[in-house]
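Deviation from plan, reported transparently: copper (II) ion complex.
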Amino acid sequence: MTTTLKVTGMTCNHCVMAVKNALSAIPEVSQVEVSLEKGEAVVSGDVPREVLVAAVKEEGYEAE
Ligand SMILES: [Cu+2]
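Because the crystal trials were delayed, the predicted structure below was used instead.
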């Protein structure tokens, strides 16, 4: 299962890494691609969208 999230608040590669690490830390997540240009995170893994959104928000960014 792949989930695409709109992530706002990312301004540089550090932000991208922070979001990527936060999502990767979820055990069920197998792969994460984060695009700064698109403001988007594509997450592979059987994880409810709310859990992914919560992880991004915990890192200080907005996701929907
Ligand atoms: Cu940054």
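The helical segments are 13-24, 49-58. We consider this an acceptable substitute for the interim report.
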